[in-house]
Amino acid sequence: MISGDFRTALATSRKYVIPLSDWFEEQGITVREGSRRGLHPKHRG
To answer: Is it true that domain 3-43 has CATH number 3.40.50.150?
Structure first.
């Protein structure tokens, strides 16, 4: 998912999406894959 997709899904602005995405990454919920972020393998169903 790219930040634009995340922004659209949450119906919010990039101002809030980027820090939230960074926090998810710090917590190990997501991983960065190039310019995209995806769920960490341990969180995939």
So the answer is: no
